[in-house]
Structures are given as structure tokens and as C-alpha cells.
Amino acid sequence: MATHPTLTAITDRIMERSRDSRATYLKKVAAAIEDGPRRAHLSCSGQAHAYAGAGADQAQLATGRAPNIGIVTAYNDMLSAHAPFASYPDLIKQIAREQGATAQVAGGVPAMCDGVTQGETGMELSLFSRDVIAMAAAVAMSHNTFDAALYLGVCDKIVPGLIIAAASFGHIPTLFLPAGPMTSGISNDEKAETRKKFATGDATREELMASEMAAYHGPGTCTFYGTANTNQMLMEFMGLHLPGASFVTPGTPLRDALTAEGTRRALDIAHGKDQFTPVGHVLDEKAFVNGLVGLMATGGSTNLVLHLPAMARAAGIILTLEDFADISALVPLMARVYPNGLADVNHFHAAGGLGYMIGNLLEEGLLHPDATTNAGNLTAYAQEAKLNGDRVRWEPAPRESLNDKILRPASDPFQKTGGLSQLSGNLGQGVIKISAVDPDRHVIEAPARIFHDQESVKTAFKAGELTGDIIFVLRFQGPRANGMPELHGLTPVLSVLQSRGQRVALVTDGRMSGASGKVPAAIHVAPEAADGGPIARIRDGDIIRLDATNGTLEVLTEGATDRPAVQVDLSGNGDGCGRELFETFRRAARPATEGATSIF
């Protein structure tokens, strides 16, 4: 089917807006390609330094001209999502040697977990860790001894940071190798129910701990559809994974076979090969539009509304909230994965997963089939990976959903529009994830209750002060105020109030993760309070209307936006847990509408 004219128009608009910056970027990529692999230009001393630790590969590196793969890894053994990467470099090197090539670990990048730091001081470093990861990966690749690259990363800030770095080395062919989700534990609904009981004092800490350990129990990503798994979806829709690689669990023969096949593919598309595919050509306007379509069709994480503009800008492409809103209006919600439903990503994968979804969206004209990918074009991703001996074979993904409670065709979706909506009005711009919110709560009008930190909300809740309908305004949580931590720790309190029959919503210049749940939340509000945005002028009792149906966010109290902006002492955000090292990032951060990045 021909590409939908609206999708074409949105893509053309992005291309026109990005014309000059994209042309400048591609000119730099072309110059680097023309210069050829830098390994050939290094001094003998420089090469000797680069190869001295290569062991059995040292002679091949010094005298051969076969491709050398650079591995950038987010491995650590504290976080389940990245622990499986421990074995990847050895396997990659083995496969490279079998192909007459070499591979080296170029360097590592930090990988922090928002689940561990949720509600803790360390969360204030989380968003800016994306920029640190980009810079650390750039340092790893700066030795310029690589003909292709493999990036090992999964979670929230790691993949976006690695993409930004990969775009900076746009002349180098690049694949991303995932680790996959952990096997399913207790249901996400059961876990959430225990959290609510603990918030009301109806469950003990021991019961809460037992529940959490039963949910997060082994290697791999968390199984709910939060930012980590949204990243994996995105890499497939944008053609940076191998087809069908995203949701194969760790420690299985198919997982290892996909890692081996990814290594072979990296060598196939390396510099000097017939299928040479520099990543700067993959990361084009069509790829980012395809990624946006995937985000909406799956009801993915709101964090990607921050990350995608930053990732795109690294490749000379300018995305705006208008692009998100227009694609959301065009693309139906095809999946119900927790917190948008009861299923986890393993159930989604078993129901047909990304292969089914991409195939169906291609049939409906809602993706660009001719987008350049590491597998040729996007049509290759309408396949699923199977094991054939110790090698991977690809076969067509199911044409029918294997569970229509989890996955439906675009012609019969769960919702006619995507999972995210843009909000704008006299309080600024923001976004809301509506795919998990009951339609009866898409419009909330209520008095404001102002807070400046999460603990104050919890204290008021425990004191029984939060009665009636309330719109919680939690401000001074933006990138310039305190690094824009996630506020997921509020979810149990808000959920309890909503379950009691109160109409509640959250308005914040902070952010919520892909696990933000069923309470309406206007997030990423910009301009932020620390920049004197309208949200800094609201007082307790002002009437606010959050209307996700019409895409508006407004204070209705006359004269509210004419008041002076509230000033608060933010000096306490500047030290402890490494925060003093991030002052430059806070001062340089762009608005949330531009990705909240501090590096460009």
C-alpha cells in the first residue's frame, strides 16, 4: 500500500524544517567517509598503542586490512538489563575471527537505573546521564580505529545517549545489540496492587519487598512497557537492530545466535564492503518518523518525547511537539501492554510482537517501507527470528494477531489515535500519555494544590489532607531546577486517591516514566518554573483544566498568569550524590520541548 499522504506530509515538513542542519550534517558525514577508515592514517606508534592489548588479534590488526569492530558497552552486573552483556564481547570477537576480522571493546558507558534511584537524590542525575553517555561513547570511538561499531545498551537514557554518539560518528556503520527482557514474574497489576496497599498501610514492608523481588527476579529488562522496552521497539522501527531481536530473553540459544548474526551483519555493512551502510544515512527523517509511528502504535514511554528530539538533533533533524501530536492523531493504538493493559512484553512478543505490528502498519501505509536500515529497508522487519541449528533464519511474522486482547490490527485498534497527546494553553506546553487513562478522566477540572517536592505530597497524603478533587501542581522539577527527575514515586498516592472516587490529575515540569499509570498527568510543562514559566504563577485553589481530548492545559482563575513568578531557593539541589558535578548541565539545559539536552 502507498504511504499515507498525511505521513508523507509530516515527513516532508520535517525535511523542510531540517533542510539546512541536515545538509550540514550530511556534508560532515560525507567528508569522513571520503577520508576513509582512520586506522590506515594512524602513525605506527599510534597503531601499536591501539593493538597492544589485543592478544591473539594483535598481528591481524597490525598487518591486515579486514574490518575492525568497535564495541561500546553499558555492561555492569548491578542492573539486570545490562548484566547479560558480560558475555557479549567474547562472542563478538569469536565470530569476528571466524570471518577473518577483529573486534575490540572501545570503551564503556555508565548505565544507571531509574528504578533504583526512583524518589532518591540520584534520580536528579538521571536525565543528564544521557548526555554523559553520549560523551563517554564519543570518547570510546575517538581513537578512530574502527570500521564498524556495535553498541550494547538497553535502558532509559542509555540507548538515546548511544544514538547521539553514533550520530556523531555518522560515517561508521553501526548496529545495536539488545539483551532482551527477563522472563515473566508476577503480574504487573499484582505488583501495583501491593504498592497501593503499602501506601495506605495495608501491606508490610516485608510483603512489599517480596512482591518486588517476584517481579524483578532475573537478568534482562523489566517486563512492563516502560522506557527500556520502548527503546528496544524504537531500535527495530528505526532499523538499528536486526529484525525480531528486541524481545528475545537473555541466556537462550536464539539470543546468542542473534548476537552472533549482528556481528556478521556489522562486518557486511562495514566500510569498504559492498553493503556499506553508514549510520548517518540510517538516521534520517524517515527513520525518525517510523520511530514516532512505533511510539504511538505501541503506547510507548513519555520519556521518548524528550529523547527523540535530542537524538534527531544529533543527526541534523529538528522534531517538534507538533510532529508528535500529528502522528499520534494519525496512528492507532494497536497494543495493550502494561501499564496500558495486563500483558507484559513477553506476552506481546508471543502474540506476534513487532514483526506483526510493522507488517500491519506497512500494509496500512503508516510507515516508510523504503527507509534505509541495517537490514536493507524496513520491509525486512516484518519478519521474526527463528533458530536454525546455531544460526538465525528469518521468516514472515504472523499476519494475524495471536491474541487480540494484547495486539490488534490498525484497522481494528484499541484506540483510533496513538498513546500520547500534546497539551498547550496559558500554562505552556506539555504532553500526556492517555493510552492507560480511562476516557472518563481525559478531562479534569479542579482546584490546584501546589507542591515543590514529592515528599510533601506524601506527607499531606498521610496526614489525610488530600480530599476532594485536586490537580496536583508539582513544580521546580524541570531540567534547570533539579535535573528533571522522574516522579513515578507519586503514582501509588495518586492511584489511591483516584480509586477512592476523587478526580485527580498531575501537572508538572518534571517527568514520569513509561510506567506512569492510569492517573492523568500533564508532564514536561515548558517553560519550566525555574525559568519563570506560567506554572510558577499558580497558587493553591486556582482552577485548572486539563483537557486531553482537545489538547489544552489552562488555568481558569482570572489574573493567575499575571502574578509575579514564585521564586524558590534551589541551592539544595546543587550538591550531594554527585549533583555538584552537574551544575553546568543544569545551567545549559534546553527546554523540555527541545529534548532538555545540554550538549547542543
What this model shows, in words?
With 600 residues, the protein is an alpha/beta fold. The protein folds into two domains: 60-183 and 218-391, no CATH class; 420-594, Glucose Oxidase, domain 1. It has 22 helices and 16 strands. Strand 7 (383-388) and strand 8 form a beta hairpin. Helix 5 (88-98) crosses helix 12 (253-268), helix 8 (158-168) runs parallel beside helix 15 (303-314) and helix 11 packs across helix 14 (285-298). The chain is globular and about 75 Å long.
Secondary-structure topology with pairs:
Blueprint: H1 5-17, H2 19-35, H3 44-51, H4 58-63, E1 68-73, H5 88-98, E2 102-108, H6 114-117, H7 126-141, E3 148-152, H8 158-168, E4 174-177, H9 188-199, H10 205-215, H11 227-237, H12 253-268, H13 279-282, H14 285-298, H15 303-314, H16 321-330, H17 345-350, H18 353-363, E5 372-373, E6 376-377, E7 383-388, E8 391-396, E9 420-425, E10 428-433, E11 443-451, H19 454-462, E12 470-474, H20 479-482, H21 491-499, E13 504-508, E14 521-526, E15 543-547, E16 552-555, H22 583-588
Helix pairs in contact: 1-16, 5-12, 7-8, 8-15, 9-10, 9-21, 11-14
